[in-house]
Write a structure and sequence with these properties.
Elements lengths: L1 H23 L14 E2 L4 H7 L6 E2 L8 E7 L4 H18 L8 E8 L3 H10 L6 E4 L3 H5 L7 E8 L2 E9 L5 H12 L3
Parallel strand pairs: 3-4, 4-5
Antiparallel strand pairs: 1-2, 3-6, 6-7
């Protein structure tokens, strides 16, 4: 009887500890700092040039040569990500065609649970023009709070810091309104 009570108490303590840990894992919040995650550098020199980095290995969002970085957390298997892909491509074009924003705002996608092969398939199928990097082992996804996809985080880069100015799940809605919100939040002109 005593043994059963002790086992029940230990089980309850473990259950509370797991629930507490799960509650503490949240996506980066507006006003917070984006974590210094390691991302695989794209092999394509066009993407390296776009990001303003060189070589091989890994890099951090904080090393991208831009004022603002839009990070999309997606999965090639996510039907919502697939449906949103044309709108995200349009957002990329909107930025690249605006002389005041081109070079100041960059985009990158992180394929949660996706290998390089899978991110390449997504890139080809949906004609994605910005870099997509794999997160095959879900390591980044865990750091990001195990968010649902698609999830968008926008950071303003300040030296070695990346301050979060936008953090939301789901479709972005109207690209022009979203971009205006980002430009205003980041203090870009």
């Amino acid at each position: 009887m005593k043994k059963n009570i002790i086992i029940l108490i230990v089980f309850f303590i473990l259950l509370v500890a797991v629930a507490t840990y799960a509650a503490d894992v949240n996506p980066p919040q507006v006003g917070g700092v984006f974590p210094e995650i390691e991302l695989l550098k794209p092999a394509d020199p066009v993407y390296l040039k776009y990001l303003g980095i060189s070589g091989s290995g890994s890099f951090k969002i904080q090393q991208i040569k831009a004022d603002v970085v839009i990070v999309e957390i997606f999965s090639m298997y996510c039907p919502h990500c697939q449906a949103e892909a044309p709108a995200i491509n349009d957002l990329y074009q909107l930025i690249e065609e605006n002389a005041a924003l081109k070079g100041k705002i960059k985009m990158i996608g992180i394929g949660t649970g996706n290998s390089i092969y899978e991110t390449d398939i997504f890139k080809k199928k949906y004609n994605v023009k910005f870099p997509l990097v794999p997160d095959g082992d879900f390591k980044i996804h865990k750091i990001m709070g195990e968010v649902r996809t698609p999830y968008f985080i926008v950071v303003k880069l300040k030296g070695k810091r990346a301050d979060v100015i936008y953090s939301k799940a789901g479709a972005l809605g109207d690209n022009k309104s979203f971009l205006e919100e980002i430009v205003k939040s980041a203090g870009l002109k």
